[in-house]
Amino acid sequence: MYVNAVYADSEGTIEKSLDWLISSARVTDNGVAWADSRSAEELLPTLYSGGAGIVMTLLEAYRHFNDDRFGDIALRASREIGANIETWDDSSLYFGLTGMAVSLQSVHEVLGDSPARASAIRALEVVLAGFDGQRWSDAFELLAGNAGIALGALRVGDMNLALTAVTPYLERADATPAGVNWENRVGTLARLHHVSHGTLGIVEALAAVGNATSRPDLVELALAGAADVISRNEALDDGFLVPHSDPQHRPELIERYSYGWCHGPAGDAQAFRLLGAVTGDPKWMELTDRCWQTLITSGLPERLRPGFWDNSGRCCGTAGVLAFASDRYVERDQNGDFARILVDDICKRATIDIEGARWSNFEHRVSPSDLEPMTGWAKGNAGIIRELLRFDRINDGRTSDYFVPWPDQPATGPRTL
């Protein structure tokens, strides 16, 4: 049996990290809001690093602890998010109005708040009005482009917008020897392969929308995109490891291989889990097994060399791997040991004092290397807390999934062996 004093106090760390997150909120004319750090001035309503993502975590905490404190501040934050709809100049899921709509929809579902639902609908009306017939910006991927807008619209229940967002992928797909891929941003030569900015993020959108709207052509295109990525696997020993991009994008800054949600097997597995749910084909679970094999033999969460594993956050760090490890714990009937290792590492890296708990990511190329703690989903407390809360419930046998669904992470399915 796995025994660790740090892990045993993980719920105490969660509570302290929520204290720090709430104390970082700033009162506004409409409610409360957050910047991406305590020193930053700009208040952000977005899913990636602002209020929308933090609200999702506060709703998780509200349901987890049955504590009105978290629901009350989530509701106040939703008013501030709604007040930004008419002026926020970005339509995307992670940086714009679509993510704000997802968060507002979640407030409506969890707290029964009808103004939040009205604001979510209005946000997507503004998004649709900004469509130019092909896209909303230079981006053409999940974080900042069509794929994310499609998944967010699907989450809020706007099938028309979801179809509008994915339809251009039918015309813009480029054939490859093994399948298809897409230009992720206007003028970018490199083809990115993974979830956040690349092919598998588009695959998720096509598969999810195609399944929801009975459009087999969209699902078939998703399968062709996945086939291109699978053909690029360079791992040995039954693993799965695909390069960041081809040709390598910004090689002076970006490593060829990553392991997290953004550009590695922790995120690739989420696309494969979705394809398994949509098609019923067991080969997709076999591919998630390969992703898992690569992760558990990679050496993470140890910092094996400068730059290898310097992030505890959800987007490119340990919390994102924990999301997949928790899925495995549920779906593959595993004992959860690797997930506990990740939780232990996250808890050990927390700074805990009278202000609460928070995490500093590490950048070996600058001095000082410990970066300022951040508040949001992608790199800060909100994303880490959300994964710790879910694992705590799974480990205690209470619930197997999140209370508040995330647009690009499939719900856990039945256990398989």
List the helices and strands and how they pair.
Layout: H1 5-8, H2 10-23, E1 26-27, E2 32-33, H3 51-65, H4 68-83, H5 97-111, H6 114-129, H7 146-156, H8 159-166, H9 168-172, E3 174-175, E4 180-181, E5 191-192, H10 199-212, H11 216-230, E6 245-246, H12 265-279, H13 283-296, H14 318-331, H15 337-348, E7 351-353, E8 356-358, H16 381-395
Antiparallel strand pairs: 1-2, 3-4, 5-6, 7-8
Structure description:
The protein is mainly alpha-helical. The chain is 49% helix and 4% strand. The chain has 16 helices and eight strands. It has helices spanning 5-8, 10-23, 51-65, 68-83, 97-111, 114-129, 146-156, 159-166, 168-172, 199-212, 216-230, 265-279, 283-296, 318-331, 337-348, 381-395; strands spanning 26-27, 32-33, 174-175, 180-181, 191-192, 245-246, 351-353, 356-358. The protein has a two-stranded antiparallel sheet. The chain has a two-stranded antiparallel ribbon with strand order 3-4. Helix 3 packs parallel to helix 5, helix 3 runs parallel beside helix 16 (381-395) and helix 12 packs antiparallel against helix 13. The longest helix has 16 residues, at 68-83. Mean pLDDT is 95; it is low at 1-8.
